[in-house]
Specification:
The chain is α/β, with parallel strands linked by helices and 333 residues long. It has 15 helices and eleven strands. Strands 5-2-1-6-7-11-10 form a seven-stranded mixed beta sheet. A two-stranded antiparallel sheet has the order 3-4. The chain starts with 6 loop residues before the first strand and ends in a 7-residue tail after the last helix.
Length: 333
């Protein structure tokens, strides 16, 4: 954070904007200011809201917000620009004038990010081409079709490197904003903000947007059969979930089981088992104090190292780091 004055954050809403995409990050930065001032330090952030026009900004909730700035003001600039999502953001991605104004804001900013479907107008500027990005899970296919040059990450809560970042649906904007506070001001203050807002500190960007069972609900003519198997697997992650053992439960040959399971669940049995075990490991790591090795054993991993490799592959973090990021902290000194 620069020493001279507060860091200016500009949230861009495109009507109708998703209200929580705006107010969630706003409350994170406001809490960071309040906690800093309570500790005798100056407020680190100055936050403003911009829309196509200065004035009332419509939201999807039906309650309008007051935008202080117009994105068409050529002098408008901020250290960080956050583009909120909502129906208006997806429509605005096709408005050449809005996209040009947003491109100018991006060029003048030190850091640029989107919340939820705010990734659509951000991608329309071209700044995400060749980069990994994410958005709300319900719009993955639409996003990929409209912006094929962007490498869509269908699992992460938020991704990015350097200047450009994107985050997933709605509440992921709070997780991402906490990550900015942590980057700017340190983990102690970020944890204090999370406690103030009564949210987890903090879901890592690599954490899945939703559970394995929600991601891979069974389909097809054997839906009930594989739904029942998936339920049993989730309740018995520490047991033998090899292809041979699972095939035997359904009275199938291993080869036929792999083919039918993959068709029904849209993922291979091996990957599904790995993801189930990671889901359960995340729960145990955040809800208790079991040593990592015991968590690994309870989740069916052959060793703590095998679990660590799985976490790195799917969540881009280690089990210990995952636990640390979720563990609540004391108040700011």
């Amino acid at each position: 954070m620069p020493a001279a004055g507060p860091h200016r954050i500009l949230i861009v809403g495109l009507p109708p904007a998703q209200m929580l995409d705006i107010t969630g990050p706003l409350d994170v930065f406001t809490a960071a200011n309040e906690l800093s001032m309570a500790a005798g330090r100056p407020a680190p952030y100055e936050v403003g809201l911009a829309g196509p026009d200065a004035g009332m900004l419509a939201t999807t909730s039906g309650i309008a917000l007051q935008a202080e700035h117009s994105i068409f003001d050529a002098a408008l600039a901020a250290g960080t620009v956050l583009v909120a999502g909502g129906r208006g953001a997806r429509v605005a991605a096709e408005d050449a004038r809005v996209v040009a104004a947003l491109a100018g804001l991006c060029e003048r900013a030190q850091r640029v990010a989107s919340i939820c479907t705010g990734a659509f107008p951000l991608a329309a500027t071209g700044v995400l081409d060749g980069r990994r990005a994410t958005t709300h899970w319900a719009h993955f296919d639409e996003f990929s079709a409209r912006f094929p040059a962007v490498d869509i990450d269908r699992d992460a809560l938020f991704v990015g490197a350097g200047k450009f970042h994107t985050s997933a649906g709605i509440t992921a904007g709070i997780d991402f904003s906490l990550s900015l506070v942590e980057h700017d001001l340190g983990s102690e203050l970020a944890r204090a903000v999370a406690r103030e807002l009564v949210v987890f500190m903090k879901r890592p960007g690599g954490q899945s947007q939703f559970s394995t069972r929600l991601m891979h609900a069974a389909t097809g003519d054997q839906r009930e059969r594989f739904d029942a198997l998936a339920h049993w697997m989730a309740e018995h992650v520490s047991e033998d979930l090899s292809i041979e053992a699972l095939a035997a439960r359904l009275a199938m040959s291993p080869r036929n089981f792999v083919r039918r399971f993959t068709a029904a669940m849209r993922v291979t049995p091996g990957k599904y088992v790995q993801m189930l075990r990671i889901d359960e490991a995340r729960r145990l790591l955040t809800e208790g104090d079991l040593p990592v090795a015991q968590v690994a054993a309870r989740c069916g991993f052959h060793s703590a190292e095998a679990m660590r490799i799985g976490f790195q592959r799917y969540l881009h973090t280690s089990p210990s780091e995952f636990r640390d990021r979720f563990r609540s902290a004391g108040s700011l000194a």
